[in-house]
Fold this sequence. Notes:
Layout: E1 5-10, H1 16-25, E2 29-32, H2 33-40, H3 44-54, E3 59-60, E4 63-64, H4 66-73, H5 77-101, E5 106-109, E6 122-127, H6 130-141, H7 145-154, E7 162-165, H8 170-183
Parallel strand pairs: 1-5, 1-6, 2-5, 6-7
Antiparallel strand pairs: 3-4
Helix pairs in contact: 2-5, 3-5
Amino acid sequence: MKPDVIAITGYIGSGKSTVTSILRQWGYETVDCDALAREISDDGELTRQVADLLGEEYVTEGKLNRAAIRSRVFGDAQLLSKYQNLFFGKVRKRLDEIVSRAHGPLFVEIPVFSAFDYDWREVWTVYSPESDIISRVIARDSVDETDVRAILSRQSLPRPTRVIRNDGSVSHLKEALRAALVQAGL
């Protein structure tokens, strides 16, 4: 029997990692797609495919040069699509492996929701006010407000099954999360 797979998504700095951390503390299985992406970026087959697509200069010492790749592909929609199909295809394959071993509901933190289609049982979007997002990302990533707004302008979110409000204290976030778990029958 396939486990229930629930996507945890939201804008940068909205609190996706905090939500998955709380779920993990409560004993739920969680997966971080960013961590999978970092793991995948060292995959020898993928680095060869990226070198074939973009050129050898985009692979340094057997690892993807992600900054150079971003600079190259984000200005070319066709190239971006080819790169994303390669990269996110590997992430999805790795996620499928994890799902096949899951024993109960599996919560998947996925920052780039449009990266690949998946058979999600539900999609939970973590919501935070824009002012909170901006201040969190500035503090966390040492960037300025213009950078954060640029990232936010490129992000899009799916229609959620549930919205988890992260606009108060951690205890309020936990209450919202408990309510979502009850509503979802988990």
